[in-house]
């Protein structure tokens, strides 16, 4: 287990953003450095206790998916080898190795591109009230966690840190994205289907996930950010799946459930996590990594 990284510091590079998990630095006018910290968020709040190795697990899993899905959609990764990055990065090898990506600088599109193959979370709540998800009418009589007849694109707005994303209709997303909407929707569904089929062969159900896309100077839509990690997806063990209830998972639902049990104030700041919650959350990430990739994670 490595020393947890709550916040990165890279002397000589300009910090552009410190998100819920990632710190983003400017390398030059064409490249950025993404650093995945060990911060963890739930209910849009960053907890004050890090999860050891979480950033490295997320980075390694994203690289696995970027490689597997590279023929579906081009992605923003230039290199994950710190030794091939600028001197400012190489000097910080100890804190940055395994958790850093040098990526292409893109015009990031202002919509979270969510795809759902199963009915869960906010989708289940909306369906119970209106029979829809993001305004999309669904068949009647579906149970909680049921597989949808076909995957659906259910985008959301991007919220500032500490505030909530807002589900929007596909029509509204198309208005926001303009001509890029066609490629974003097509890539989202195809990426999900390809990943879903791989995961099924590994005994894992991908209930839903979200992608982020950018546009390069040539106008091509590019897959960006992280891909199919426990932070952006619901992963369910197939051997314990049953319709009509919430599911066991390899994602951070365990942390959300614990926060609910202690009546976490969702309008307040993040809180410290007890050691047993840190340990169990870390193990969820490790179990998901092994299930999806077929290998043990090596820090």
How would you describe the overall organization of this protein?
The chain is globular. The protein is built from eight helices and 16 strands. The mean pLDDT is 95. The N and C termini lie close together (7 Å). Helix content is 30%, strand content 25%. It is α+β, with helices and mostly antiparallel strands and 299 residues long. A hairpin with a 5-residue loop joins strand 14 (204-215) and strand 15. The strands form four sheets. Strands 8, 9, 12, 13, 14, 15 and 16 form a seven-stranded antiparallel sheet that branches. It has helices at residues 54-68, 87-90, 93-96, 121-130, 170-177, 181-201, 253-261, 275-293; strands spanning 14-18, 22-28, 31-36, 41-42, 45-46, 77-79, 100-104, 107-108, 111-118, 132-133, 136-137, 147-153, 156-157, 204-215, 221-224, 233-237. Helix 1 (54-68) runs parallel beside helix 8. It has two domains: 14-105, Phosphorylase Kinase, domain 1; 108-260, ATP-grasp fold, B domain (D-amino Acid Aminotransferase, Chain A, domain 1, 2-Layer Sandwich), CATH 3.30.470.
Summarize the structure.
The chain has helices at residues 54-68, 87-90, 93-96, 121-130, 170-177, 181-201, 253-261, 275-293; strands at 14-18, 22-28, 31-36, 41-42, 45-46, 77-79, 100-104, 107-108, 111-118, 132-133, 136-137, 147-153, 156-157, 204-215, 221-224, 233-237. It is an alpha+beta fold and 299 residues long.
């Amino acid at each position: 287990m490595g020393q947890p990284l709550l916040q990165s510091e890279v002397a000589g590079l300009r910090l552009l953003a410190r998100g819920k998990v990632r710190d983003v630095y400017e390398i030059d006018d064409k490249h950025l450095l993404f650093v995945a910290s060990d911060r963890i968020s739930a209910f849009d709040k960053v907890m004050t206790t890090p999860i050891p190795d979480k950033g490295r697990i997320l980075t390694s899993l994203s690289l696995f998916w970027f490689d597997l899905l590279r023929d579906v959609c081009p992605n923003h990764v230039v290199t994950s080898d710190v030794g091939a990055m600028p001197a400012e990065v190489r000097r910080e090898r100890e804190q940055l190795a395994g958790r850093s990506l040098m990526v292409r600088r893109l015009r990031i599109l202002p919509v979270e591109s969510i795809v759902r193959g199963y009915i869960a979370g906010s989708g289940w709540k909306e369906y119970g009230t209106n029979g829809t998800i993001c305004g999309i009418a669904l068949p009647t009589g579906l149970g909680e966690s049921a597989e949808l007849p076909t995957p659906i694109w259910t985008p959301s707005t991007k919220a500032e840190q500490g505030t909530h994303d807002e589900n929007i209709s596909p029509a509204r997303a198309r208005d926001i994205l303009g001509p890029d909407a066609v490629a974003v929707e097509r890539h989202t569904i195809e990426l999900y289907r390809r990943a879903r089929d791989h995961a099924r062969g590994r005994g894992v159900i991908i209930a839903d996930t979200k992608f982020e896309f950018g546009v390069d100077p040539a106008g091509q839509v590019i897959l960006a950010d992280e891909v199919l990690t426990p932070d952006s997806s619901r992963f369910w063990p197939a051997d314990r799946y049953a319709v009509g209830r919430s599911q066991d998972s390899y994602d951070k639902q365990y942390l959300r459930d614990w926060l609910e049990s202690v009546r976490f104030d969702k309008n307040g700041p993040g809180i410290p996590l007890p050691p047993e919650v840190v340990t169990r959350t870390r193990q969820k990430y490790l179990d998901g990594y092994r299930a999806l990739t077929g290998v043990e994670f090596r820090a």
